């Protein structure tokens, strides 16, 4: 049995489309059900941010997750394939009228991604105060909660509609197929067989 963790959220639809092409129209999660079995595969419907945990712990053998989430978790997993979907950037956003001021003794940054943020500003030798939020990040600079944000930019619409602009891009992200290191030894054939099917579809 190969356990596959699939993401909810922004990359869910495109990911499910790939798996539907491989497994046929039977490939459907019932209403609120979080697992689905098809032949030798068990699919798990997992929150995007939790996928590295499921795969690292071996609760899932493989999974699909955004590179930004992987970096944030610093997850010890194998990166098998860039699925080239769910493309976005992790960016620093500031108000349209502002400049990112590195001369400040401390920059206040609101973000869902504290580790990516801390690592990036460490390379700039700049002190940051990180304000951890769980969503609607673009609101923070508008109401004076932070000087800047670090967040996902896909179309740029959310920043634009809230009077923000990109000051710097930190990294590119897209969905990746990942594997638990031990599973890749024990279930190598099954994993590679699925890997090749996905690879053929996207390349
Ligand atoms: C993400 C991200 C931005 C927005 C970017 O939020 O945090 O807010 O999407 O997309 P855009 O550049 O296409 O506008 P999400 O929709 O995941 O909701 P959240 O604010 O609840 O995290």
From TrEMBL:
Compartment(s) of residence: Cytoplasm
EC number of this enzyme: 2.4.2.17
Keywords: Amino-acid biosynthesis, ATP-binding, Cytoplasm, Glycosyltransferase, Histidine biosynthesis, Nucleotide-binding, Transferase
Pathway named in the protein's UniProt entry: Amino-acid biosynthesis; L-histidine biosynthesis; L-histidine from 5-phospho-alpha-D-ribose 1-diphosphate: step 1/9
Sequence ranges assigned to domain ATP phosphoribosyltransferase catalytic in this UniProt record: 47-199
Main location (coarse class): cytoplasm
Domain of life of the native organism: Bacteria
Recorded GO CC terms: cytoplasm
Catalytic activity: 1-(5-phospho-beta-D-ribosyl)-ATP + diphosphate = 5-phospho-alpha-D-ribose 1-diphosphate + ATP
A Pfam family assignment: HisG
HAMAP family to which the protein is assigned, alphabetical: HisG_Short
Entry function: Catalyzes the condensation of ATP and 5-phosphoribose 1-diphosphate to form N'-(5'-phosphoribosyl)-ATP (PR-ATP). Has a crucial role in the pathway because the rate of histidine biosynthesis seems to be controlled primarily by regulation of HisG enzymatic activity.
Entry comment, domain topic: Lacks the C-terminal regulatory region which is replaced by HisZ.
Binding partners and assembly: Heteromultimer composed of HisG and HisZ subunits.
The family this protein is said to belong to: Belongs to the ATP phosphoribosyltransferase family. Short subfamily.
Name of the protein: ATP phosphoribosyltransferase
Originating gene: hisG
